[in-house]
Amino acid sequence: MKRILLLLLAVVIVGGAGIMLFAWSGLYNVGASAGHMAITRWFLEFGMRNSVETHALGIDAPPLAEPALIERGAGHFQGGCAPCHGAPGVQPSPVAQHMLPAPPELSNSIGIWSSAELFWIVRHGIKYTGMPAWPAPVRVDEVWAMVAFLERLPRLGPEEYRRLAMADLGKITDPTDKAPPTALVGLIEGDPTACARCHGLRGEGGAAGGVPRLDGQRPEYLAMSLQDFALGSRPSGIMHPVAIYLTAEERTRLAQYYASLGQGAEPHHHQYAPAPDPRLLELGAAIAEKGVPEQSIPPCSSCHGPRGRAEDKNPRYPALAGQHYHYLVNQLELWRAGVRGGTFAELMSTNVRNITDEQIRAVALYYAGLSRR
Ligand code: HEC
Ligand code: HEC
Ligand code: HEC
User: Fold this and answer.
1) What's the sign of the alpha-carbon dihedral 324, 325, 330, 335?
2) In this structure, how many other beta carbons lie within 10 angstroms of the beta carbon of residue 58?
3) What is the C-alpha to C-alpha distance for residues 140 and 45, in angstroms, rounded to an integer?
4) 294 CA distance to ligand 3 centroid (A)?
């Protein structure tokens, strides 16, 4: 028995030394161009599949069919994923295609993964492959938005993909004649940072209400938010990679531009927002004007203004009037969970720590229906 154990130990030591010697000799070809041997490829893929399956156990997917969710994922896909993976009608970068393994065309491979597995991959990335983790790990809601989009991807043609992920940037003409180039074409032509791609041509937000309106928002608040995204103090895996490229002057310029638009915009009870149920609206109005003392919720109007336009308040307090319903709901959930971030994170998040789901829907419905004028 002892002899066998000693023998095994010797084998392990000699084997380990052999591997070290091989690594030390430099004979192993780490070049991506060399490819993997079939057995190595099989082994790596086998390991990856099983790892993802195991780690995704116990993750429950929320409902993912919401168009606002799909829209939020789509915009980021074009800038953050398509350069490696390609998209319907979009070639991946030839540089990325020489990675090992080459990033797969996702329309074909998405079907093998469950929602929970996709969530895990997109949130954590895959070691030693170049597949990156989500840039803002606390924003699980953004990761789910990406999964919602990925599940839609196999059924998207080039045209629909373009509309969802790029607005119609190719056809854009400046509606106002004073748009900073960053707003419409990005920092360089065709750049994924072009704000209009996600926030709409006039800053009206995403067509499905998944991306916030910027038009008619207060300029100081917009500039502050862009800085918070750049610093990461307001975490977002979608806005952080955009905001870091903007200089302070560019942030101010864009903030002033968007604030100057939409002064006359009417509230749009969005086609995707739920029907304005009178009972919920009444509840929402009561929360906004009186708060809910027994849940320590102060009146929202004390900071966001009596009509939700934040007028006569600190200029860095946001207007809520006319903002998209889905965006408001999402932000309130983030505040309640304590992960929204921002310069005034402490001030705002304590207000809604005890708010219920129904109260969130009610107050969001109320503010979405108010005019910005
Ligand atoms: C720098 C290049 C790169 C970027 C950017 C990138 N990926 Fe990947 N991704 C990869 C590579 C390489 C793999 C293959 C990993 C493997 O086969 O083990 C991969 C694998 C995947 C997979 C598993 C696919 C499969 O069936 O094997 C999914 C899903 C995925 N990526 C989604 C995304 C999403 C969503 C984004 C954007 C948020 C993204 N990727 C950004 C390189 C990238
Ligand atoms: C890839 C899509 C995308 C692009 C491109 C993009 N945004 Fe955003 N933006 C978003 C999303 C999604 C949010 C919501 C972020 C969150 O949930 O925290 C957002 C939020 C914002 C906010 C905060 C709004 C609020 O009410 O708090 C501002 C300000 C903003 N973006 C400005 C810009 C500007 C300016 C540009 C162009 C330089 C730009 N964005 C480009 C998707 C995008
Ligand atoms: C004490 C002042 C105060 C009160 C009361 C208050 N808020 Fe806020 N709220 C703020 C500030 C300041 C911000 C901006 C935080 C930041 O981005 O740093 C904010 C941000 C928000 C946002 C995000 C807006 C956007 O465009 O991203 C929503 C939604 C919101 N508040 C809803 C509410 C609701 C609903 C209530 C009432 C239940 C409420 N707030 C009460 C100060 C307040």
Assistant:
1) positive
2) 6
3) 26
4) 19
With tokens 């207000």, the residue in question is 351
List the one residue out of 159, 136, 164, 24 whose CA is nearest residue 88.
159
pLDDT digits (tens, 9 = 90+) for 213-253: 999 999 999 999 999 999 999 999 999 999 999 999 999 99
* CA 101 to ligand 1 centroid distance, Å: 10
**Ligand 2 center from residue 204 Cα (angstroms):** 12
Residue type (1 letter), 77: F
Find out whether the beta carbon of 230 lies less than 6 Å from any atom of ligand 3.
no
Q: How far apart are CA 257 and CA 322, in angstroms?
A: 18
Closest Cα to atom 3 of ligand 2: 198
pLDDT band at 38 (very low <50, low <70, confident <90, very high): very high
- Give residue for tokens 């790596």: 44
Chain segment 162-216, per-residue pLDDT in tens: 889 887 665 666 767 778 878 877 766 556 678 988 998 888 898 888 999 999 9
Between the alpha carbon of residue 85 and those of residues 38, 60, 152, the distances in Å are 23, 26, 15
Beta carbons of 230 and 343 less than 8 angstroms apart: no
Q: Is the CB of 305 under 6 A from ligand 3?
A: no
pLDDT of residue 246: 93
Contacts of 9 (CB under 8 A, 6+ apart): none
How many Cα atoms occupy the beta-carbon half-sphere of 172 within 13 Å? 25
> Which of 328, 199, 307 lies closest to 261, judged by CA?
199
Read off the tokens for 102. 């080459």
Nearest protein Cα to ligand 1, atom 29: 118
The residue assigned the tokens 């000699």 is 14
Residue type, position 100, single letter: L
CA atoms within 13 A on the CB side of 309: 13
Asked if 348 and 342 count as a contact pair (C-beta separation under 8 A), the reply is yes
